[in-house]
Amino acid sequence: MTIALVFLGIILATLLGWLVKQTINTTPWEMEAASDTAHHGPLGGTTDKSKLIALVTFLAVASSFFALILSAYALRMELGDWVPLTEPQLLWMNTVMLIVASIVFQWTRNASVNDQQSRLKPGLMITGVLTLGFVLGQFVAWQQLQNSGQLVSSNPSNAFFYFLTGAHAVHILGGLYVWARATLRVVLGTGSAEGIRRSIELCTIYWHFLLIVWLVLFGLLLST
Amino acid sequence: MPFAVVLILLVVGSLLFHFLSPWNFTELASNWEMVDLTIDITFVVTGFVFVVVNLFMAYCVIKYRYKKGAKANYEPENKKLEYWLTGVTSILIAAMLTPGLFVWAKFVDVPADAHIVEAVGQQWHWTYRYPGEDGKLGEVDAERISQENPFGIDPEDPNGQDDVVVYNAEGHIPIDRPVKFLLRSKDVLHNFTVAQFRVKMDLVPGMNTFMWLTPTRTGRFELLCEELCGVGHFAMRGAIVVDEQEDFDSWLAAQPTFSELMSRPAGNAVVGAAQYAPCAACHGTQGAGNLDLNAPKLAGQSDWYLKRQLMNYKTGLRGTHEKDMFGRQMTAMVMTLVNEAAVDNVVAYINTLPDSPVLSTIDGDIERGQDIYAVCAYCHGRDGMGVQATNAPRLAGLSDWYMKRQLQNWKDGVRGSHKKDYYGYQMGLFSQTLNDEQAINDILAYINTL
Amino acid sequence: MSYVAFADRDHEQEHHDPETFFTKYIWSQDHKVIAIQYGLTAIFVGLIALGLSVMMRLQLGFPNEFNFINPEDYYQFITMHGMIMVVYLLTALFLGGFGNYLIPLMCGSRDMVFPYLNMLSYWTYLVSVIILVASFFVDGGATGAGWTLYPPQAISQGTPGIDVGIILMLVSLAVFIVAFTMGGLNYVTTVLQARCKGMTLMRLPLSVWGIFIATILGLLAFPALLVSAIMMLFDKTLMTSFFMPAVSSMGIDPGYSGGSPILFQHLFWFFGHPEVYIVALPAFGIVSDLISTHARKNIFGYRMMVWAIIMIGGLSFVVWAHHMYVSGMNPYFGFFFATTTLIIAVPTAIKVYNWVLTLWEGNIHLRVPMLFSIGFIFTFIHGGLTGLFLGNVTIDLPLSDTYFVVAHFHMVMGVSPVLVVLGAIYHWWPKISGKMYNETLGKWHFWMTFLGAYAIYLPMHYLGFAGVPRRYFAMGNTDFLPDSAQDLNVAITISAIFVAASQLLFFINMIWSLKSGPKSDPNPWDATTLEWHTPDHPPKHGNWGHELPEVHRWAYDYSVPGYEDDFIPQNVGADKVPAGRDRDGEH
C-alpha cells in the first residue's frame, strides 16, 4: 500500500499546508476590519474557477483510484505466481498517438486563448482522431493478446494489464464525451467563444493528466 | 435536572454492571496473563476517564442549566487548559499503549523450543496434523486434496510420511510446553479461537499463519471459528484438549501417520459379507431396511458415513443416550464387529449391495420442504447425495421414516449431545431451525423427490 | 437552467423558478429538495436495515422460538444490515442529506455550484439503492458474505448469494461511489468557491467543516472500495486470481490459484477506516453546532476543533490495518498500527473535552436537539473508550471477532451518529418544514432511544468478554459460557425491539407536525448561523432572495458581553451594533 500512501501523503500534505495557511493565524472570534473580503471567487453559481476546482478535485479522485490499483499491483506481484507479461509492440504506437494528441490539444488551447478561431476545428479534429486511435489501438492490443492465448485469467499480470488499460480507456472515453460536445459546438458554430475556450482549457488539462497516467502505467507495465 | 440525574445514574449503573457482571473473561488457561494485565490497565484508565468526564458533564448540566436572565460566559478558547488536557490525554494513552506493545512483541516472537501443531480449517470443521519423529511437516498443496488425502500432503515428500494426521475436530496438546499453532485453511477464511487461551489468529487459504501459547492447565477447551466462513460458520466447533505429557504421548501414538493412512488396506467385501449376517437380520440381506424392525436402509449410503457411525456406536459417541432406544439396540449389535478392520469390511460389503428405491412413508408440502432444504443443501448437496468434504451424508433415496426419527432426536438432544460427536453436534445446531413435525415432514417429502 | 442565471447574481429576474410539481419536487436541482430526497431514501433503506436487525435479534434472543429465519437468511440479513447502515444510510444521509441541505445555506450561497450534477448524484444513488434492494429478490438471494465481503468466502461455495447476489452488491457499490463522487465534487467546490462575502474558512460553522473534510476523505477513500469491488468482480466473473488462492472448496477445485485474500482486506479497510470518519466527522461538526446553540455559548476552542477534524481526517488513512491485527498479515505491522490508532485518540478526546467545556458556564436549554447532543457525548465517550481496547493490538487478541467489537462499533458508529442525526433533524426541522414539532413527544423519543440503546449495547460488551463470537446464528451449548449469557441475549433483544418500536414516535411527531404543527419562528433557537436568517421561511429556491448575505463574524457569537441579546447573527455587521458597546471596548 506504499504507493497509495505516498500519493495520499502528497495530496493530504498539500491540502494541509493550504489549510494551515488559511487558518493558522486567524482568531475568528475577533471582528476583522471592514475590508474583510477574504472571500475569493464569485458568489455562487458555476464559474470558470469552480469548474477548474471541480476538475482538479476529480483528478485527485482518479489519481487515488489509479494509485490504489498500482498498490494492489505491487502487492500482488510479490506473490509467487507472477509471470511478467510481454506487452504488445502496438502499445508504443498508441503511446505516440496519445502524446501527439496531448500536444495538439495544447496547441488548440493556445489558439483558443489567442482567439485564433480557425485553428480550433482542425485542432480538435486531430486530437479526437488520435485519441480515438489510441482507444482503438488499445482494443487491438487486447485482441492480439487474446489471440496469442494471453487471457485475462491466465496470470495476475495479465489480469492487471486488462484492468489497468481498461480503467484508463474508460477515463479517456469520458474525456471524449466532453471533447465531442465541445467539437460539436465548434462545428455547428453554436455556443459562445468564451464557453468553447473554457471547455477546451479543461479538456486540455484532462488530456495531459491522462497522458501522465498512461506514461506511468506503461512504464510500470514495461518494467515488470 | 432529571437529565443530569439520569446521566449520573448511568455512570453508576455502568460501574455496578461492570463489577457485578457474571459475564466476564473465562478462566485463563495459557501463559498470556499479560494480555489480561493489559486489559486491566486499560480498564482502570478508561474507567477513570468515563467517570470523570461524564460526571463533569452532569455537573455542568445541573449547574449551568437555563435560567432566565442568566448569560453564558464568553470564552472562545483557553490555550493553557487545552494544552493541559492534550498532555494528560497523551500520557494516559501512552500508559495503555506501552504495555500493549510489549506484550505484542512477545506474541510475534515464538519461543525457539515451541513444538508445532498444525490446525487445518475447512467448511465447517477442524482437523490437525502433527509432525512425526523428524519434527517437520510435509509439503501440502490445495490441488492434492481429495477424499483419500484430505490434508493434501505431497506423497513424494519424505518429511510428510510420518506426519500424524488427525481427521477429527479434537486436537490434543501437552501442558506447560510452548506450542506454535501453524494455521492453514483449505477453502475460505477461518479463525482459530479458544477463549481460555486469549490469543487468536485467522486461517488464510493460500498462506500459513501462526500463533503460539503455553497451556497452563489441563482440560478440554472449546475451539471456535471466529471469522465468517459461510452458512455453517456458527457450527464450526472443535476442541483443544490439554493433557499431561504422558497422556498426550499415548494419544498421539494412537493416531495414524500419513503413510499408514495411505497404505491402509481397503475393506474386504468378501470377509465383510460374513460379518454382515447379524446386520441382515434387521436391515435385510440387501440392506434395504425394514420399517417394522426400525432398521434403516443402508445400501447406497456413503461408506465413510457408515464407517463413522459404526465407530461412533462402538466408542459410545452414539447410541448411549437413555432415550435413544433404537440406538442402544444398535450399540449392542455393533459389538459383533470387533475392530476397525471388521467395520471396514462390513462397510465394503454394504457398498456392493444394490441401491434399490425406497417407498416414501411421509406426506408433506414439497414446496415448503424445498424452501427449508435450501439450508440443508449447503452441506448435503442440492441433489441430497451427500458431500464428504462437509461430512454430510447422503439423504436422497434413503429411509425417510428413519431420517424423521433422527431429526427429532437431534431436536430433542437425544442424538449429537455427546461432547465428542462434533458432526452430530453440528447437525443438532441446524436441526433447531426446524420448528415442528410439519417442517420435518415437508423437508422429507422434498428429499423423497430428489 | 437556473444555474446559468445564478452565475450572474445581478440578474435575478432571469432565474427561472421551477414551476411544475415534477420540476419542483422530482427532477429538482434545488439543493434543499435533493437533500430531502437523499434523506428520505436513506431513511427508507435504513428502516429496512432496522427491520433486519430486529429479525436477527429475535433469532439471537429466542433461538428456538422464531424459526422463520434460518442460517442462510441470518447471514444475508447481517450483510445487508451492515452495508445499508454504513454506506447507504449514514454516508448518504450525512453527506447527501445534511451536506446538501446545510452547505449552501451555511456558506451563504444560492445552491450547489453544479446543481445538475447534484440532481444526477441523487438519481444515481437511488439506482444503487434499487440494485441493492433488488438483490434480495434474485435467485439465491442477497449475498451473505458479511458487510466486509471478504474473499474467498464472498464468492465461494457455502455462502448465500454467490451467483447473483454478490454481483449486484458489488455493482451497487460501484454505482454508489459514482453517485458519491458527483455529490462530493459539488460539496468541495461549493465550500471552496461559493461562500458569500466575508465568509472566511475560519468563520464556517463546524458542521460545514465536518462535512467538508468528510467529503474529502470519501473522495480519496471510496476509490479503494471501487478498486476492490472491480477486482472481485473480475475474480467472480472472469476467473482471475487477484484475491483468490488455490482452494479446495467443499472438495472441489474451483480453478483459482495464487491470489491473496489479505490484499482485499488491505484495500477494503483502506476505504473502511476512513469510512468510519466519513460518518463521524459530519456528526462531530453538527453536534458542535447544536451544543453551542442550545448552550448559548460559543463552541469552546473553535480552532482546536477545526484542526482536530483535519488531523483525524489525515490520520484516518494510516490506521486501517487495526482491523486486521489477527488477519494473518505480517504481525510486525501491529506495532505501527496500534501506535497510530492510539494517537488518533488524542484529537478525538480533545473534541470530547471541548464539547463538555462548551457546556461549562453555559446557559443550557435542554430542548430535544440538546438532549440528543448530550446523549451523543455520553455514547460517544463510551464507544471511544472501548475503541482504545480494540485499537491496542494486544487487547484485540481476545476481543476481536467477539460481541465486544459489535458493541463497540454500534456504540461509536451506530448509536452515536444516529443520535446526532435525530438531534439534527429536530434542530433543523423548523427550517426545513416551517413547522414546530411536539416537544414532549420528542423528549419521549429521546429517552426511549437513548436509554434503550444503552441497554442494548452496554451488556453486549460483556458477552464479548465472556467470549461470544460475532456473526453466530446460534450459540448452542458450550462449556465456557454461563447459561445466563442467554438471559442477557433475551434482555438485549427486548431492548432492541423497544428501541426500534420507539422510532415510531419520531415519525408520528414529524407527520403530526407537517399536518397540524404550529408555524415556527424563522429562528426558533436564536441561532447565529446563516441558514436561520434567510429572507423566506422555509427558504425558497435560490435561498437568499435578491441579495446574498454578507458575513461579518464567526458562527459562534453567543452571549457576547455587552450585548443585550445572547446571540449576534453572522450577517450582522459591527455598524448595526449600538455605539460604545462594541466588543473591543469590553476586552
Describe the 3D structure.
The complex is a heterotrimer of chains A (224), B (450) and C (587). Chain A contains six helices and no strands. Chain A has a domain at 89-224: Four Helix Bundle (Hemerythrin (Met), subunit A), CATH 1.20.120.80. Helices cover 75% and strands 0% of the residues of chain A. Chain A has helices at residues 2-23, 48-77, 90-113, 120-147, 156-188, 193-223. In chain B, 44% of the residues lie in helices and 12% in strands. Chain B has a five-stranded mixed β-sheet with strand order 3-2-1-5-8, with no helix packed on it. Chain C is 62% helix and 0% strand. Chain C has helices at residues 2-6, 21-26, 31-61, 71-107, 115-134, 165-193, 206-238, 261-294, 302-315, 333-359, 368-391, 393-399, 403-433, 439-466, 484-516, 583-586. Chains B and C meet through helix 1, helix 2, helix 3, strand 7 and strand 9 of B and helix 4, helix 9, helix 10, helix 11 and helix 12 of C.
Per the CATH scheme, the topology name of chain C is: Cytochrome C Oxidase, Chain A
Oligomeric state of the chains in view: heterotrimer
Query: So how many helices of chain B?
Result: 14
Query: How many individual β-strands of chain B?
Result: 10
Output the CATH homologous superfamily of the largest domain in chain B. Answer: Cupredoxins -  blue copper proteins
Distance between the termini of chain B: 68 Å
The assigned CATH architecture of the largest domain in chain B is Sandwich
Would you state the CATH class of the largest domain in chain B? Answer: Mainly Beta
Which protein chains are joined by the largest interface, and how many residues does each one contribute? B-C, 122 and 118 residues
Biggest sheet layout of chain C: none
The gyration radius over C-alpha positions of chain C equals 24 Å
According to CATH, what is the topology of the largest domain in chain B?
A: Immunoglobulin-like
- The total count of helices of chain C amounts to 16
Output mean pLDDT of chain C: 91
Dominant shape of chain C: globular
Rounded mean pLDDT of chain B is 92
Instruction: Count all strands of chain C and give the number.
Output: 0
Note the main sheet of chain B.
5 strands, mixed
Q: What separation lies between the terminal Cα atoms of chain C?
A: 50 Å
* Beta-strand percent range of chain C: under 5%
Structural class of chain C: mainly alpha
